[in-house]
Amino acid sequence: MQDLLNAIAKNRFLVIGRVGMDLSAEPPGSKTEEAQYMRVGMGGSSANIAAGICKFGGSAALVTCVSDDAIGRYCINQLRAYGVDASHVRTVGGECRNSIAIYESRVEDHQTVIYRNGAADFEMSMGDIDAVDFSDHSALITAGTVFAAEPSRSAAFHAFERAKACSMPIIFDIDYRPYSWPSAQVAADVLSRAGAMCDVIVGNDEEFGFMAGDYDQGLTMARELAAESASIVVYKMGEKGAITFAGGEELRTGIFPVEALKPTGAGDSFMAGLMASLAAGHDLHISVLRGSACASIVVAKPGCAPAMPDLAELEEFLATHPGPTQDA
After folding, report:
1. Hey, what CATH topology would domain 2-320 get?
2. β-bridge pairing 85-92 and 12-16
3. What is the tens place of the pLDDT at every residue in 105-153?
């Protein structure tokens, strides 16, 4: 555990996975089909996590592919604007296109539409991984979508193997998106294989249940991963809070209630806040709570990456919020 925390404390993250464009219906509360205009922002789970880490003063480099068009250039420009190292983002041509997500800033009857046909990020190759000097980074972060198709899947496992070879911890957000996978069985098999290689695993109850093949067995699987391979496993339960497994103990934490504007972006902000807090030297219990606070901040504001807090915003939120719900 201490080696893991020491690596995170160096605050130099290599992040693997997609960057895309988000469009959200405006004004807030609008249905997409009734929108008067659209708000634009950077999206993609891995890119959001990287941006969140940089907002807290950490270092993050993204490895992925973008399309050779205006959308791809927008994504690269946004990464740079957030301070993310985009030197390992490769442009691909042909029919490959960047992901675009259209979502609504409302909770009731929320609709999200994802355009992922011929996704450019799935073109990431082993060569892209081999072009990275792993010694420049202290920890690897990725999200499950990177494993959904080839050649990205093989490239991501290659990155895991390289990280293992240089004793770099692997941090994994399960982030199961059914629409990206050829079948549920393939997804369960691949994500379980990936999870067994990781030092930190973060997911919600549905994702762990999916990996276990039975929703009711998700909590058991989280416990098993913590006992057998991972140093930290965070089992998120929505409004019921989270259970964190580490060092043979179970830490139960609540959430910071807010009036949510939308359900999107919470998981990415949680991961960024958790990593930034551990890097700053906070203990695991406090770091999970700070990650939860980051999630609450994001769901209460428009956008995903744009809504992620910096350190001053997080501290102000913690100072003025009544506090988390009682530990679950």
Report:
1. UDP-N-acetylmuramoyl-L-alanine:D-glutamate ligase (3.40.1190)
2. unpaired
3. 999 999 999 999 899 999 999 999 999 999 999 999 999 999 999 999 9
